[in-house]
Amino acid sequence: QVQLVESGGGVVQAGGSLRLSCAASGRTDTLYFMGWFRQAPGKEREFVSAISWSGGGISYGDFVKGRFTISTDNTKNTVYLQMNSLKPEDTAVYYCAATRRDRGFSLTELRGYDYWGQGTQVTVSS
Predict the structure, then answer these.
(1) Chain-wide mean pLDDT for the chain?
(2) Cα separation of 24 and 53, whole Å?
């Protein structure tokens, strides 16, 4: 089993920055890929970014457009999402996800992951 705990959310003005953290515990030695998703009120959960546990295989959702950076620190069992140039439309609950194997689905899909955190709220004011 793997447990995920997100932190770093908050309220920020448009144009500001936040860094989200996702601390993994449990069987982290078997982790394959980590991802970030977000869900705004009344909308479906959508893909933000993914990275392999070793730090490669990085991908981003189309809306990111160079504003976010995903990274890992294996010494701390933590994945980060640095978010810059935030917009009001980035307001959402941000979720961390993890998988220990290739589940046969795209890592941009929810079903590509086995484990989920509880989420952290990001609010961007205009």
Answers:
(1) 96
(2) 11
Q: What's the half-sphere exposure (Cβ side, CA atoms, 13 Å) at 6?
A: 25
Determine the Cα–Cα distance for residues 56 and 103; give it in Å rounded to an integer: 18
**pLDDT of 2 higher than 90:** yes
Identify the CA nearest to 78 among candidates 106, 98, 60: 98
Burial (Cβ within 10 Å: 0-12, 13-18, ≥19) of residue 101? exposed
Q: What is the DSSP string of 50-67?
A: EEETTS---EE-TTTTTS
Flag whether pLDDT at 103 surpasses 90.
no
